Amino acid sequence: MDHFDIRGGVMHAEGVNLDSLADAVGTPFYCYSSATIERHFQVFADAVAGLGDGDPLVAFAVKANPNLSVLATLARLGAGADVVSGGEMARALAAGVPANRIVFSGVGKQPHEMAAGIEAGILQFNVESEAEIGMLAAVAAAHDARVDIAIRVNPAVNPGTHAKISTGGQDSKFGIPIERAHAAFVMAAGHASLNPVGLAAHIGSQLTDLSPIESCITRLGELAQGLRGAGHGVSRIDVGGGLGVPYRADQPAPPLPSVYAEMVARATRGWDCRLIFEPGRMIVGNAGVMVAGVILVKQGTTKTFVVTDAGMNDLLRPSLYGAWHDIRALRPRGDTMVATVVGPVCESGDTFAEDRTIEAVGAGDRIAFMTAGAYGATMASTYNSRPLVPEVMVKGDAWSVVSERNQPAAMLALDARAPWL
Ligand SMILES: Cc1ncc(COP(=O)(O)O)c(C=O)c1O
Ligand SMILES: N[C@@H](CCCC[NH3+])C(=O)O
């Protein structure tokens, strides 16, 4: 695992002893390795460098991990940002991502979010419906602006991933069905306040097979050719993100960025346009862990439950998708146990692993949920009135709390008594 390994009997994140860090910040908490984030971004950016017109944009999908320090780490390396809300856009800007490297995607952008994007001067909006073309045209006209847009296409390609994270299938809510995309582009060109410059697609997440992405890119190319043949300029093609990461050692690893880039080079050969990439998970997934404490070990009728102080509200992926995260002891003792690892939340779905062989742990020990840097803290909630857990970033021997644990009293203060109570 990148930059998370056992040294002197204890798991470290880069040079930081995670058990000591847990003493300092309390459990549960997320911990990110800057070195891993930097390395993954650089590997991806190097792999796609020179593709298309030679000036590709790697726009990190902020939804994967919107922490300000994560975004600032990436901004320093020249990353752009793919955002899906005004909130994500504000974070990207605050982290130092230049506006002209921000792409705004999403099926339900609201007029105030469109206005904020126009005022900030973002690179482009990826428009996902004919209805949105009209809405954006009106907001842009009210700003006396002419905004660059790409038509996000639904290419009707089955990405072969979990149904809940597939976005490119025919009945997905995302994008404009490919058979109407040419007409949508022409419709947008008819608005003086819109400047359609490109096409976009994103077919799904945690993709382990490149062939659906290749089919999608080929379809975008055919569409671009048709548009060019009809006299329209297509100067940008956004191929989305989606490249998977290894969650389990016993399953084949997803393709490396270099192999992905070879496929993109092949599929886009001869295209004279700027390519945009929106990787999320592959940049930050393996750059984060969630550290939790073992509250107690409880014997059921047939199962041994390891009850941790982290719950499904802190790391939702196992409950929502049945996702696998490796679970490791911070201080492995060399023996193992078969355990069902659960959180304290009052839901049976608050289960991280079922009858899994893990390194033996007991009350007071600490464990790490691996590969939790993407779609981890960002999907957390305060269900059961549990505070959001802190996020810590590590760089070499240094660490810093980059998101505070919110406190029960502060959460309560957001509520108010109705005047009649
Ligand atoms: C439009 C868009 N771009 C990029 C991504 C990032 O995907 P991933 O984290 O799988 O790279 C997503 C999420 O799946 C998305 O919806
Ligand atoms: N939240 C998902 C990924 C969603 C991608 C969003 N388009 C996950 O944890 O795997």
Automatic annotation (TrEMBL):
Q: Name one GO biological process term.
A: lysine biosynthetic process via diaminopimelate
Which reactions is this enzyme annotated as catalysing?
A: meso-2,6-diaminopimelate + H(+) = L-lysine + CO2
The residues listed in the UniProt record as binding substrate, with positions renumbered to this chain, are 281, 317, 321, 347, 375
Gene3D superfamilies, sorted: Alanine racemase, Lyase, Ornithine Decarboxylase, Chain A, domain 1
Which UniProt keywords are listed? Amino-acid biosynthesis, Decarboxylase, Lyase, Lysine biosynthesis, Pyridoxal phosphate
In this chain the Orn/DAP/Arg decarboxylase 2 N-terminal domain maps to 35-284
Q: Which Pfam families match?
A: Orn_Arg_deC_N, Orn_DAP_Arg_deC
Spell out which residues are annotated as carrying N6-(pyridoxal phosphate)lysine. Answer: 63
**Could you say which EC number(s) this protein's record lists?**
4.1.1.20
Tell me the pathway.
Amino-acid biosynthesis; L-lysine biosynthesis via DAP pathway; L-lysine from DL-2,6-diaminopimelate: step 1/1
Domain of life from the UniProt record:
Bacteria
Q: What PROSITE patterns does the annotation carry?
A: ODR_DC_2_1, ODR_DC_2_2
UniProt xrefs under CDD domains: PLPDE_III_DapDC (cd06828)
The Swiss-Prot or TrEMBL record annotates one GO molecular function as: pyridoxal phosphate binding
> In its keyword annotation, does this UniProt entry include Lyase?
yes
List of catalytic residues: 346 (proton donor)
The Orn/DAP/Arg decarboxylase 2 C-terminal domain sits at: 29-373
Q: Give the residue range of the signal peptide.
A: none
Q: Which residues bind pyridoxal 5'-phosphate?
A: 242, 278-281, 375
What cofactor(s) does the depicted protein rely on?
A: pyridoxal 5'-phosphate
Subunit and interaction comment: Homodimer.
Concerning its family, UniProt says:
Belongs to the Orn/Lys/Arg decarboxylase class-II family. LysA subfamily.
Task of the protein: Specifically catalyzes the decarboxylation of meso-diaminopimelate (meso-DAP) to L-lysine.
PANTHER family reported in the protein's UniProt record: DIAMINOPIMELATE DECARBOXYLASE, GROUP IV DECARBOXYLASE
The protein here is known as: Diaminopimelate decarboxylase
Gene name, Swiss-Prot/TrEMBL: lysA
